[in-house]
Amino acid sequence: MGVSGSVPDGRELGAALRKLREANGLNTRTMAARVGVSNANISHWETGNRLVPLERLTTILDALSVTDEERDRLIGLRRRAGGPGQLVAGVPSIGEQLTRLIEYERTAKRITSVSPLVIPGLLQTGDYARHVLGEGPNTDTRVALRVGRREVLTRRRKPVEFLALIDSDVLVRPIAPPEVMFDQLEHLAQMAELPNVTVQLVPSTTPGYHPLLAGPFILLEFPTATPVVHLEHHRASAYLWEQQDVAAFVAAPNEIRLKAMSSDRSIEVIKEIAQGMEAA
To answer: Which of 9, 78, 169, 263 is deepest in the core (most CB within 10 A)?
Structure first.
């Protein structure tokens, strides 16, 4: 049956196998017949719920049209899949790192974004995102991809549950010009009223320490696989999935929410600040 898959490389491998199968015009049943396994095994391997055994992977690749380069990459992913976490240097908003995050967001049942510094990426407008990401040769693409990721919150079928815990100072931090900040707050308030989206502000003057002060993170929880934590900083990103590492991040949101405003009051405050910006 294969081993349990709870690591980023395993999920990335599964997503790549699914795309290859679809590109070859095969459904899971036909693929299963070619490889000599059950349809359920193909589904588990493609979702990353289980890691495909290496010998089965080579059989799958033999049955598909795969370049030598892609074959080597996928076998390398499988060999790394049981290894430790990895810190990836470079721009965390493009390429393989973003592909991995998009796949996690697409398959998650619940996402929690702890945001002490900026509006969470899934709730950003395009103009706000442009000021966060900065100008560069890939800025238009990066902004479009960030805005497109929002679809997991608004899709008609099973939109993901999303909890955003935001430091109140984020609302008035002048990252962008006033008109962009106003539009961003209006958009934030609208998104917060979706039935699957909860936005709670944590007053910046709250006394004492709480995990929001330790820095931003995204907790992704899945229907069957174990949770994954995404950490993103200026020029690097990392994923955590080992149970002992993830446990503290799973517990942190509940601790933060003890310090937070209610969702209704948070929406009121967002609208009040937006109205003040409009009147200024």
So the answer is: 9
Helix (H, G, I), strand (E, B) or coil at 47: helix
- The 10 Å Cβ neighbour count of residue 79 is 12
Does pLDDT of 142 surpass 50? yes
Q: How far apart are CA 174 and CA 15, in angstroms?
A: 39
Tokens of 48: 């990353």
- pLDDT class for 232, splitting at 50, 70, 90? confident
Residue matched to tokens 């608004």 = 154
The number of angstroms, rounded, from the C-alpha of 258 to the middle of its chain's C-alpha atoms is 24
- In tens, the pLDDT along 97-113 reads 677 788 789 888 999 99
User: What is the DSSP annotation of 107-153?
Assistant: H-SEEEEEESSS--GGG--HHHHHHHH-SSTTHHHHHHHHHHTTHHH
> What are the residues whose beta carbons fall under 8 Å from the beta carbon of 67, sequence distance 6 or more?
none
Place of tokens 């994923």: 239
